């Protein structure tokens, strides 16, 4: 059964078409990977689903409710929670204060303790978020999102800038919470990480869906290799 | 040169600086949280003075009049926010700083004109709620000056407690850092906005009522203090509450010293020399944090 149905979503900024009629079904309980070249519209799609950007056309159905997308606050209350490419943490507050904010909004504040342990935040609770090492800051951002007990977690390039061991730890963290019943929409340029994590994958190109299927099918499709994977592989070879 | 006058100048500087800090505290709160360069803050200050004046003239006790004025100015502040700022902030991109500044100037002019229609342009004075002074061998200070300094201490403590010891305060601080992230964390930003405007407008009104008992009041009386308060914000660091206090006190001291040991004609030159020096040496202000793009 689909948890999120995106139908014919268009987003235009002046003359620029960021999304040109995207239709996607994201089944409940999967990790759904979204890849594509820079400017393909991946972040815009997350912005639309989370309520940050109003689409110029199309609709979003979430858990059977079909009048979406909704403004940010209503999306959050329905269980649609996102992270940012940068960070969603409050940089001028301490880690403890960041988590206190999460506890106020969380439907189950008791999960925070577990998140502190899982994200390795225990030793840095009294440090200002803005002074944290990059990887720890990214984990704090994900902890804040998970604290809200999302049904759908939108992760916008969570692995960017992380070293291999940190990426591995991030993967374990996502899997652990996914196993508790969270559906994940993962946008990521680290193709190996995304393919390993995802149950299904869609490829966006110039605002439209180029392909949707399993990671194995995706890596074998010639048009995906031409548009995206070939370039990534060539970049990696350089 | 005339060192024996120094303690008296320091006392005067502390009192003047406290008034600047009171005005700047409300301004920096609204600017820091909502990113509104609220030039109409000077009119919250003016209305605090005039409403207190009108109520005292009708026979009310000064302190009751001031409290009522604070409540009314908070209501006016909410109306100003609803009519002047929210429509601009709701525009795509949350409204640019320039459009918010022009809206603030428009709000400021409208409130000044309304005050002129109601009370006229003639300067008035609020009867001082207390007279007398403390005399020491080094300086004298009036009870009213002491009250203003004490009010600053109480206001600062109250604002600090709200911001650092309450859920609402945590929400205010979170919203001030990242509005979209605050919304995504389920923070009710409308409530934060109302609370911030209420605190800011109340501080402006208190400053106006107390200063109105010291200096003449007139509809454009808020223009100069709000400009000084913006200078205080730059000196102390925009959005920083300790910065507003220290910046206000530094500015008050410098003005009094320049006027006392130089000439009162150079008072504003001293102010702007400090402003330029801070901008050159520490552009983020004394208590501001340099912004790092991540």
Automatic annotation (TrEMBL), chain A:
GO MF entry, a single one: L-isoleucine transmembrane transporter activity
A GO cellular component annotation in the UniProt record: plasma membrane
Record Pfam families: ABC_tran
Signal peptide, first to last residue: none
Gene Ontology biological process terms from the UniProt entry: D-alanine transmembrane transport; L-alanine transport; L-isoleucine import across plasma membrane; L-valine import across plasma membrane
Domain ABC transporter residue range list: 4-231
Keywords from the named record: ATP-binding, Nucleotide-binding, Transport
Protein's name according to its UniProt entry: ABC transporter ATP-binding protein
UniProtKB/TrEMBL annotation, chain B:
Annotated membrane topology: Multi-pass membrane protein
Main location class: membrane
Subcellular location: Cell membrane
Membrane-spanning parts: 20-37, 44-63, 97-121, 141-163, 194-218, 230-254, 266-285
Entries under InterPro entries matching the protein: ABC_transp_permease (IPR001851), BCAA_transport_permease (IPR052157)
Keyword terms: Amino-acid transport, Cell membrane, Membrane, Transmembrane, Transmembrane helix, Transport
Gene Ontology terms describing biological process: amino acid transport
GO cellular component, one term: plasma membrane
Presence of keyword Cell membrane: yes
Pfam hit, one: BPD_transp_2
Gene Ontology MF: a single term: transmembrane transporter activity
Family classification: Belongs to the binding-protein-dependent transport system permease family. LivHM subfamily.
Descriptive protein name: Branched-chain amino acid ABC transporter permease
Source organism of this protein record: Skermanella aerolata
Lineage: Bacteria, Pseudomonadati, Pseudomonadota, Alphaproteobacteria, Rhodospirillales
